[in-house]
Design goal:
Oligomer: heterodimer
Strand content of chain B: under 5%
Shape of chain B: globular
Mean pLDDT of chain A: 93
Radius of gyration of chain A: 23 Å
Structural class of chain B: mainly alpha
Strand content of chain A: under 5%
Largest interface: A-B, 85 and 95 residues
Helix content of chain B: over 70%
Number of strands of chain A: 0
Shape of chain A: elongated
Distance between the termini of chain B: 17 Å
Number of helices of chain B: 15
Order of helices and strands of chain B: HHHHHEEHHHHHHHHHH
Low-confidence stretches of chain B: none
Low-confidence stretches of chain A: none
Largest sheet of chain A: none
Distance between the termini of chain A: 72 Å
């Protein structure tokens, strides 16, 4: 067959083989990835970048890999909307670097957790999950209460990096960031982040 | 002139060591879901960090070490030349092991880029990229100097592994560093999700599928002492695989906040992917069918053939889970975990074990220490992976159905906590499954080290007078 003899040339020429693999494997990415990866997603009306305390909390959420067990993505299905609230929209995640949608719900989705429980409930729950949810299998995060927020004094550098990437932080936001975290613990920061989640998309104006 | 096999031996034993450590971490996190307080409140033992360590060690420590080692073994023998730049090959070995070791420690210390299966922070991303380029130089350098006219099929797959994983890794790791241990992704939100799953799915595709198919195409015919059944089928399957796999990533984002056309396209391509996947399986089974009687006595071949069966199962289940109306139930559940492990344990680990049982006696110049022990390992591994997959199917299908169940008034029928509490027996079974599988791997470690302890000086000469 002719295509087999054509292939004989490919498998006798390493350069041609490399080129072939590169071209054939790139097509899917070109069509699917490029138009979306280069797209600018506008932020939802009213959505602000994370405050210094919330950003610190978000980076703790990333450090502890909370997204291993908790999703932040409500699918447009009746049961999910009933259970968790309005379904997720792309414009709500404009300031999420990286995105934290997760792939597994060992624990519940957290996208609309903001404002659902009091700060005190979160504190009790994070320190000893089974004190408020008896059958919970979540680990205790009591250790976060002993750690000062922004232990390595990088919050301003982090906000400047995000500003470079287009997050609308003002010079004032960045200047006041260290002061905003002074005297707060990692637990305070994580709770502030959780309370910030999903409020804009749910139609609740942040306080 | 003889083959450079010492670096292959080094990669082999490094791979086995990471397998034990990575699987032990997996067993520990499985136990944490049954006994949630055994992390003792310690950061390094907490579920999130330890699970990240588990996936990093098994994927990049166990899996990639096995792939680089076997690629170096295979490319020399199918090219009839000594490895190109053996010193560079040794540099790759040490650089890779240092990256996994320090990277593992960094995850326990809380460095995390936040992207699944790419959690290592930017200094490690750079180290991985450099080691990968060096891997390409050694591999393609050897091919360029080959004394056999045609490039063997295994090397197409190893070549695709090198090229495509480099592309995926570099694009998905585009990030702006803040400190040594912290960076922010260049992509945000929904576009970031698309990039991540293009990476995540194709790391599965070109590393866990393609790379290990390279292993299959060499070690299966070798161990079965049969030629590949159909050469034409392998050509068609290879190019169809390279073209189609890359489209399938967004099936991880069904019903998510990404455009519907991307989801639909990914679903269609995932279904088409079944054809090249099974073409390869058929090719493998037909190859081994001529040596069926060897299956009764040869532990290495038993592992490889069972791996082929799990390959068939996982590459059938994958497209089914990519159908949107199936995915609506399976997504976010333990079913995904079961699917991953039928591939990772049943296919990747088993074919690697079989290959190592073939390889280590040849590298050591001594017979396998105990065939009986290898047979025991086979049954432990089979029992472990079956129990794992069945328990996660039970757990995942329950979650999928119960979470979406509505009562007559249109309200959710079961609270999240009720469904979570119902998972406990499945989690306990999965823990047992993991222990069985790990026990088998420990037996293999003992068997292979004992084999190697009785080694004689062995060098394999490069065949003279091969076709130019």
């Amino acid at each position: 067959m002719r295509w087999v003899s054509l292939h004989r040339r490919l498998e006798r020429n390493a350069g041609l083989l490399i080129f072939g693999i590169l071209v054939v494997s790139s097509i899917g990415g070109m069509v699917q990835l490029l138009p979306i990866a280069t797209q600018h997603v506008h932020a939802a009306p009213g959505l602000k970048p994370y405050s210094a305390l919330e950003l610190e909390g978000r980076d703790i959420y990333i450090r502890e890999s909370c997204s291993t067990c908790h999703t932040q993505q409500i699918r447009p299905l009746l049961a999910e909307v009933r259970r968790y609230g309005p379904y997720s929209r792309a414009e709500e995640f404009a300031y999420d670097r990286p995105f934290l949608w997760g792939s597994k719900r060992t624990g519940p989705d957290l996208q609309r957790i903001g404002g659902r429980y009091s700060d005190t409930w979160h504190r009790l729950h994070l320190i000893d999950p089974r004190s408020v949810v008896p059958r919970s299998i979540m680990p205790s995060y009591a250790r976060l209460a002993d750690e000062p927020a922004d232990g390595n004094h990088s919050i301003q550098a982090r906000m400047r990096t995000l500003a470079t990437l287009g997050h609308p932080y003002s010079a004032k936001d960045i200047d006041e960031a260290s002061a905003a975290l002074a005297g707060r613990t990692e637990l305070d920061a994580l709770i502030a982040y959780l309370q910030s989640l999903g409020r804009v998309g749910a139609g609740v104006t942040p306080p | 002139m003889h083959y450079e096999d010492r670096v292959v031996t080094a990669f082999t034993f490094a791979s086995v060591t990471w397998a034990l450590l990575g699987m032990a971490a997996g067993v520990y996190v499985a136990a944490e879901l049954v006994f949630p307080t055994i992390d003792l409140g310690m950061a390094g033992l907490s579920f999130g960090r330890l699970r990240t360590l588990h996936t990093t060690l098994v994927l990049f420590g166990f899996g990639v070490s096995a792939l680089i080692g076997t690629a170096f073994y295979t490319v020399q023998r199918t090219s009839h030349v000594r490895l190109f730049a053996p010193k560079l090959a040794w540099a790759i070995f040490w650089a890779w092991q240092a990256t996994i070791l320090l990277g593992g420690i960094s995850i326990l210390a809380g460095w995390n880029a936040g992207k699944e299966y790419a959690e290592l922070e930017w200094p490690f991303d750079i180290a991985i990229a450099l080691a990968w380029v060096a891997f390409a130089v050694v591999f393609f350098g050897t091919i360029a100097r080959r004394r056999v006219e045609a490039i063997y099929i295994s090397n197409w797959f190893y070549g695709a592994l090198i090229i495509v994983v480099a592309m995926l890794h570099i694009v998905n790791s585009l990030e702006l560093p803040v400190t040594l241990g912290k960076s922010y992704s260049l992509f945000a939100g929904a576009p970031d999700a698309i990039v991540q799953w293009w990476y995540g799915h194709n790391a599965v595709g070109f590393l866990l599928t393609g790379g290990f198919l390279g292993m299959l195409y060499y070690f299966l015919p070798k161990q079965a002492e049969q030629p590949i059944w159909s050469y034409r089928l392998s050509i068609v399957a290879f190019w169809a695989f390279v073209y189609t796999y890359i489209w399938a990533g967004p099936h991880h984002l069904h019903y998510h906040a990404v455009p519907a056309w991307v989801q639909s396209l990914a679903m269609v391509m995932s279904l088409i992917l079944l054809a090249p996947s099974w073409a390869t399986m058929v090719n493998g089974i037909m190859t081994v069918s001529g040596a069926a009687q060897k299956l009764r006595t040869d532990p290495a071949l038993k592992f490889i053939v069972l791996a082929l069966a799990f390959y068939g199962l996982a590459t059938f289940e994958g497209p089914m889970l990519a159908i949107r109306s199936v995915n609506v139930f399976s997504h976010f559940t333990e079913w995904t975990i079961g699917h991953v492990h039928s591939g990772a344990l049943g296919w990747n680990a088993l074919i690697t074990f079989g290959t190592f049982y073939f390889l280590v006696p040849r590298l050591a110049g001594a017979p396998l220490y105990s065939a009986q022990l290898a047979n025991r390992h086979f049954w432990l591994a089979l029992a472990g992976v079956m129990l794992y997959v069945l328990s996660m199917w039970g757990a995942g299908i329950s979650q999928g159905v119960l979470w979406l169940s509505l009562d007559d008034l249109g309200e959710v029928r079961f609270s999240f906590n009720d469904v979570m509490a119902a998972m406990r027996p499945y989690y306990a079974l999965r823990l047992v499954a993991g222990l069985l599988f790990l026990w088998g791997a420990v037996l293999m470690f003992w068997n292979l080290t004992q084999t190697f302890a009785k080694r004689s000086t062995v060098t394999v000469a490069v065949p003279a007078g091969a076709t130019a």
